Amino acid sequence: MAAIAARPFAERLAEWAQFNAEMSRLEADGVRRRHPDYDDHRVLRALVRLRYGDDLARGAWPGVELVDP
User: Fold this and answer.
1) How many structural domains is the chain composed of?
2) How high is the mean pLDDT of the chain?
3) pLDDT exceeds 80 at position 68
4) Are the C-beta atoms of residues 46 and 67 closer than 8 Å to each other?
5) Which among 61, 26, 25 is positioned nearest to 42, based on CA atoms?
6) Element containing residue 11 per DSSP (H, E)
7) Nearest 5 degrees, angle CA 28-CA 54-CA 35?
8) Quick one: pLDDT at residue 5?
9) What is the Cα–Cα distance from 58 to 61, expressed in whole angstroms?
């Protein structure tokens, strides 16, 4: 941990952002593998449901049926 802490903050922040972007891509790829018929909008709705739960997904798209993640 000391070696990581010794690196410049900007370098650690950039690495963290890259890691986050990669994890988001992998998460979306998983939804697409499970549901090859989903378009990009349905993938987004599935990701919102996975990350934030049913209540927030319903709040983001009121009156629209939830999609399976």
Assistant:
1) 1
2) 95
3) yes
4) yes
5) 61
6) helix 9-34
7) 35
8) 80
9) 5
How far apart (Å, rounded) are the C-alpha atoms in residues 50 and 7?
33
Checking 12-19 for CB contacts under 8 A at 24+ apart, the result is: none
Residue 54 lies inside a defined structural domain of this protein: yes
Q: Is pLDDT of 61 > 80? A: yes
Residues recorded for the chain? 69
- The helix/strand/coil state of 30 is helix
Domain residues for the domain of 42 are: 2-60
Enter the tokens of residue 38. 């989903």
- Residue at 37 is within a domain: yes
pLDDT tens digits along 19-47: 999 999 999 999 999 999 999 999 999 99
CB atoms within 10 A of CB 67: 19
Residue type at position 63: G
